[in-house]
Amino acid sequence: MNIKDYLQNRSALVDRALERWMPGEEVLPRSLHQAMRYSVFAGGKRLRPILMIAACESLGGHAGQVLHAACAMEMIHTYSLIHDDLPAMDDDDFRRGRPTNHKVYGEATAILAGDALLTEAFRILADAEANRSVPPATVIKVIELVARYAGSQGMVGGQVVDMESEGKEIDFPTLEYIHTHKTGGLILASVQVGALLGGANDSQVAAIKRFGGAAGLAFQVADDILDVVGDQQHLGKNVGSDQARGKATYPAQLGLDEAQQRADELCGIAISALAPLGKSAEILQELARYIVNRDS
Amino acid sequence: MNIKDYLQNRSALVDRALERWMPGEEVLPRSLHQAMRYSVFAGGKRLRPILMIAACESLGGHAGQVLHAACAMEMIHTYSLIHDDLPAMDDDDFRRGRPTNHKVYGEATAILAGDALLTEAFRILADAEANRSVPPATVIKVIELVARYAGSQGMVGGQVVDMESEGKEIDFPTLEYIHTHKTGGLILASVQVGALLGGANDSQVAAIKRFGGAAGLAFQVADDILDVVGDQQHLGKNVGSDQARGKATYPAQLGLDEAQQRADELCGIAISALAPLGKSAEILQELARYIVNRDS
User: Fold this and answer.
1) A23 to chain B nearest CA, in Å?
2) Quick one: which of B255, B236, B254 has its CA closest to B295?
3) By CA distance, what is A23's nearest residue in B?
4) Which phi-psi region, left, alpha or beta, contains residue A67 (left: φ > 0; alpha: ψ -120 to 50)?
5) Contact state of B153 with A126 under an 8 Å Cβ cutoff
6) CA A273 – CA A116 distance, rounded (Å)
7) CB B21: neighbour CB atoms within 10 A?
8) Are A53 and A66 a contacting pair, CB within 8 Å?
9) Of B32, B77, B28, which Cα lies nearest the Cα of B50?
10) Which of residues 183-222 of B touch A (CB under 8 A)?
């Protein structure tokens, strides 16, 4: 299967699973569940869930083993976008070409929709039926890992430093802190969860972790580059918005060429990390290439 | 031990445990951890943690078995207060006599401090060291239960309906929905977690659940009454603020006398529910009485 077919096929799987795991629009309170679904089904690429599936598959597992956790991860990602877009934060009116959650449902409901998505994600990770073939100790490990990468010393921490750095001169370590925590962490968590639920042994988890660390950072460097050179229509947001906002980015710190070089280098590191897994990790390698070469 | 000493002693235990489980102010990002600690150590009564401890003790367990989960519950309670106080929600400037989180740290950091407290709560619930003597299946059950009572069909759902009902005529079932979901749920979850971690059998959990359902609702009815007749100094917030805001309350729906009668009735239901547990549940009975007769 080529990478384009793979992305399409696995994202369709994720969408169907989300449809199953997300409370329907008719469930009370309706406005809340509508707001949650609005952002979850807003045309995201499902990159984190797909990476989780691919990591599981690279170890001989199959998508069905991780679909609930993949949905949980997408819900955490979605909550972070809803809260990031709020007036008190990035104050964005559009995301993926559609009005942001608070523009449609109001600020209060948007805050609560984010809170609920985060909470429901943990409910799903702990769901008895979804985990019926998973050793309980692994389920707990997965929950601890996801909370750690999403929490105050993970994604939320990265968002705080990103916000505090706006319009300021920051050094390179601070930029790397923001990128590895705010974006890289959930990607790294996704592949590790895929490996754990796929039944990986310690050395396989270690290889996947090296892959995820490099791929996660590469994703954000590529994102920074796309914000400078990307096509507005493909991105669904304004090109150059990082710069306009005084956001810390790789191209701003290193220049565009060196930023691209860094993205390619990270892609290489990610791919090499997979060597111990052999041929079964080919799709993960393709995903690393896709991450740095995508156009949206 | 009389109830006053019990409350003081157990809340001191909880404070010490929170000191241990909450990242210190020096941990990066400092502003985030300062904001989280500001609200967690703002003089809360630790009612949910104390109820959890008491439930565990009533089954022959001891406080040490549940302290980590008690901290997690207090962190979830605290996150909900921070988000409730935001300008987009209740827009409160003071809580417990001190400026609210967003008045001190700004809206963006307050939102993120809430997000981080919620996420860290799940990390602590899944912590390997804290759960070393707990069967893994029980740990997962606890996490699922907490997420369910805190999520879109629990606490967050209650907050949405509460918000949407402001200034509107609502019927009694809607008022009960708000109170059982927004406040009652976390109290009910707290005693159930205490029972589960204390090693309760199914019939003991069922008794504790009946207790928690009644006590949780009684707490909110008493809260509504205090908002009308309470002493501003003891409450740390403006008396009559619910009415000023057009909030749905028991006294507004039933009148003050009937509301007090309902609180007493719920207290009686809570106490009777404990009968199967015998003498060891005396402190839980005292707590039910305290809940409806407190002055702040």
Assistant:
1) 9
2) B236
3) B152
4) alpha
5) no
6) 36
7) 21
8) yes
9) B77
10) none
- A-contacting residues of B 118-137, CB under 8 Å? 118-120, 122-123, 125-128, 131, 135-137
Q: Among B46-50, B69-73, B236-240, name the one with the lowest average pLDDT.
A: B236-240
**What is the least distance, in Å, from the CA of B62 to any CA of chain A?**
23
- Quick one: average pLDDT of A106-128? 98
**Which pTM does this prediction carry?**
0.97
Strand partners, B99: B94
Question: Domain of A162?
Answer: 3-293
Give per-residue burial for A213-232: e unless 16+ CB within 10 Å, then b. bbbbbbbbbbbbbbbbebee
**Per residue in A267-284, pLDDT tens?**
999 999 999 999 999 999
Number of domains in chain A: 1
The H-or-E segment that residue B95 falls in is strand B94-95
- Report the pLDDT value the prediction gives residue A50, as an integer from 0 to 100: 98
DSSP secondary structure, B151-177, as one string: STTTHHHHHHHHHHHTTS---HHHHHH
Rg of chain B taking only CA atoms, in angstroms: 18
| Helical (H) or strand (E) element with B116 | helix B107-125
DSSP H stretches of helix in chain A: 3-21, 30-40, 47-58, 67-85, 101-105, 107-125, 136-150, 155-165, 172-179, 185-197, 202-229, 232-235, 241-244, 250-254, 256-273, 282-293
Residue numbers in A near B136 (CB within 8 A): 135-137, 139-140
Q: What is the pLDDT of residues A9-48, one digit of tens each?
A: 999 999 999 999 999 999 999 999 999 999 999 999 999 9
ipTM over 0.90: yes
Whether A242 contacts A249, CB under 8 Å: yes
What mean pLDDT is predicted for residues A234-260?
A: 81
How many residues are recorded in chain A? 296
* Largest Cα–Cα separation, chain B: 51
- Does the beta-carbon distance from A114 to B118 stay under 8 Å? no
Closest Cα in chain A, distance from residue B282 (Å): 33
Contact A106 B112 (CB under 8 A): no
**pLDDT for A133-184, tens place per residue?**
999 999 999 999 999 999 999 999 999 999 999 989 899 999 999 999 999 9
Are the beta carbons of B134 and B68 closer than 8 angstroms? no
Is the omega angle on the peptide bond into residue A29 within 30 degrees of 0, that is, cis?
Answer: yes
With a cut of 90, say whether residue A295 has pLDDT above it: no
CATH of the domain at B20: 1.10.600.10
Q: How far apart are the C-alpha atoms of B285 and B289, rounded to whole Å?
A: 7
A55 close to A208: Cβ distance less than 8 angstroms: yes
Residue B151: its chain A contacts at CB < 8 A? 116, 119-120, 123
